[in-house]
Amino acid sequence: MKGKPVSESRTTMTEVVLPNDANIHGNILGGKVMHLMDLAGVISAFRHCRMPVVTVSVDSLCFLHPIKVGQLVLLEAVVTRAFTTSMEVEVQVFSEDPLSGKRMKTSAAFLTFVGLDMNGKPTRVPPLIPRTQEDKRRYRAALRRRRQRLSEARAVGTKDV
Ligand SMILES: CC(C)(COP(=O)(O)OP(=O)(O)OC[C@H]1O[C@@H](n2cnc3c(N)ncnc32)[C@H](O)[C@@H]1OP(=O)(O)O)[C@@H](O)C(=O)NCCC(=O)NCCS
Q: What is the pTM of this model?
């Protein structure tokens, strides 16, 4: 199967935080951020493999700073590595003040997606071709994280391989 460069999967999304998406402090709900991260991740995975995908895991999710109602939410997603039927996607979230333009990194996570065939069964996805130094660094780190996440999944009994 032909490999794909990292650029194929690079995805950016921008949203504005509306009052309906906020908690009583006037900040975006964590669940809303997670929803947006899943969407950015799934689009990135789709662009890499061009087949139906499902989310199988989310790890290293952090919320570093709140994002206030009226601010912009920017999401950046990229496939870091494709394995056999699964792909790891790094999703980063930034806030942007619409008046000053000031940006801050507010969240990050690694999501794993599995490519599915027409019968909904896991199927092989194209390999990722890392070209730049940064692509290669992320590619190497993705293998370490995969070992860790599968070992944790086995430990809690959600992966019985
Ligand atoms: C994802 C799913 C199809 C995998 O099924 P499965 O029987 O575990 O299939 P496999 O054992 O062949 O694993 C498929 C891939 O998932 C990976 N995987 C399985 N569990 C995992 C976990 N907890 N974390 C990370 N990767 C995992 C495997 O390593 C494998 O990847 P590889 O082929 O690149 O090595 C199945 O678990 C599922 O349908 N889950 C529900 C998905 C869902 O509903 N998501 C939310 C809505 S999109």
A: 0.96
pLDDT in tens, 103-133: 999 999 999 999 999 999 999 999 999 999 9
Parse the chain into domains and list their residue ranges.
Answer: 4-155
143 lines ligand 1 (CB under 6 A): no
Name which CATH class applies to 4-155: alpha beta
Q: DSSP readout, 89-155?
A: EEEEEEEE-TTT--EEEEEEEEEEEEEB-TTS-B---PPEE--SHHHHHHHHHHHHHHHHHHHHHHH
- How much distance in Å is there from the Cα of 59 to the middle of ligand 1? 14
Distance of alpha carbon 9 from its chain centroid, rounded?
Answer: 11
Ligand 1 pocket test: pick from 1, 56, 81, 159 the residue with the most ligand atoms within 8 Å of its Cβ. Answer: 56
- Categorize the per-residue pLDDT at 156 as very low, low, confident or very high, splitting at 50, 70 and 90: confident
